Amino acid sequence: MNTPSNQDIPRKVAASQGFQWVATGFRLYRKTPLLLSAAFGLMFGVVMVLGIIPLVGGALSDLASPLLVAGFMAAYRTLDESRELELPDFLAGVRGPLLPLTTIGAVQLLGALIIGQIMFAMGFDPRAIMDAAKGGSSSPAEMQDVMNQALPAVLVGMALFAPLIMATWFAPALILFGGARPVTALRVSLKAVARNWAAMLTNSLALGLLLFIAALVPLLIGLLVAMPVLFGSLYASYQAIFAVWADDTAAVQAGDSLA
Predict the structure, then answer these.
(1) For helices 33-51 and 223-242, what crossing angle results, to 10°?
(2) Are residues 48 and 61 in contact, defined by beta-carbon separation less than 8 angstroms?
(3) How far apart are CA 48 and CA 61, in angstroms?
């Protein structure tokens, strides 16, 4: 990323930007909706197929997920620059920084495994919770005991997952567009999300509402629209926080001349 020496990167943006990112993602999606939805369906299907491979499926799915993100980041940059979008654009991660991107996937996988083990050691038992939720022979008191035992583990898990998500949120885009190394991408992404927590919160609320509405559409067809828009929102947030805008540069130069 080439930035002026006095440019503060990653930027801190207003909380209202979180809503604007979703609007920008939808605006870009409208340029080629069928291709974006079809590409998501195809790529998501590939990730799901990898996930059902015995023993190694889950690991392969996690390793491949940053490649999917990178493909959509490249696609939205193509649209943002008013160039013609083609299916090979979605393979930018595979054709480009494959190893750094899969390293991010490995970090996600390892982090999730470690956090899962911590939660399990604290008494979080998904099978027991499912059995209690079904009712069956469990009394209300027994169900309450299961939930009371699981609650501290769930809270700890949420606290541990938060920095993992923050560190990996912008990492694929930083690697693809900025040429960052995995460790640098993770560190800068964590800093960017923490610095823009208000905008990220409003963005999460807007995306959560979008996904909720999409889930109401039969056969999950709504997700074929909502998920590409989510990636478009991610691209817009990356641009707002990391890209050097011409008007910002002009403002800096004008300030220097006045000084």
Answers:
(1) 100
(2) yes
(3) 7
Q: How many domains does the chain have?
A: 1
Three-state secondary structure of 83-135: CCCCHHHHHHHHHCCHHHHHHHHHHHHHHHHHHHHHHHHCCCCHHHHHHHHHC
Please state the length of the chain. 259
Domain that holds residue 95: 17-112+163-242
CA 166 distance to own-chain centroid: 9
Q: Tell me the pTM.
A: 0.84
Average pLDDT, the chain: 86
- Digit-coded pLDDT (tens) for 191-246: 999 999 999 999 999 999 999 999 998 877 899 999 999 999 999 999 999 985 44
Within-domain flag for 85: yes
| CA distances, 85 to each of 6, 15, 28, 31, 40 (Å) | 34, 31, 11, 9, 14
Contacts of 209 (CB under 8 A, 6+ apart): none
> Nearest Cα to 227, choosing from 33, 4, 8?
33
For residue 22, being part of any structural domain is answered with yes
The pLDDT value recorded for residue 136 is 55
Q: Is residue 132 situated within a structural domain?
A: no
User: What is d(CA 108, CA 203) in angstroms, rounded to the nearest whole number?
Assistant: 22
Query: For the segment 65-82, what is each residue's pLDDT rounded down to a tens digit?
Result: 999 999 999 999 999 999
Which region, left, alpha or beta, applies to residue 135 given φ > 0 means left and ψ of -120 to 50 means alpha?
A: left
Contacts (Cβ under 8 Å, ≥6 apart) of 181 = 100, 175
> Does a structural domain hold residue 122?
no
